[in-house]
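INFO  loader      accepted 1 record
INFO  loader      residues=128
INFO  predictor   begin
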Amino acid sequence: MPKAYLFLVIAIAAETIGTTALTASQQFTRPLPTVILIVSYALAFYLLSLTLRTMPVGIVYAIWSGLGIALIAAIGYVVFGQKLDLPAVIGMAMILGGILVIHLFSDTGHSPAPQAAPAVSQDAQSPQ
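INFO  predictor   done
INFO  writer      dumping tokens
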């Protein structure tokens, strides 16, 4: 697995942990879940920024949001007893199917992220 995908998977896991801690923090009134939330989100966004060095933002965000939705729904079901009806399950399956289509069949998912333009030196900016 290339580094970018490893960073993305860990970022999604960290974001999922942070979102679960958000629920457990009870509106930031419980210190431990609040600290877990802050650390998890910071790690998630740092790793997401590393992923964006080599992958297009649209593809990264599609994978991030789709897997995040599915994981949070599963955690909500298992940990918090939140039930999902059939339309919700079908909708999440469609989201995950869309991620697979993008990843497996689209060239967009495999193209490198655009590189930033080179910096212009001060000498080139000053009028002669």
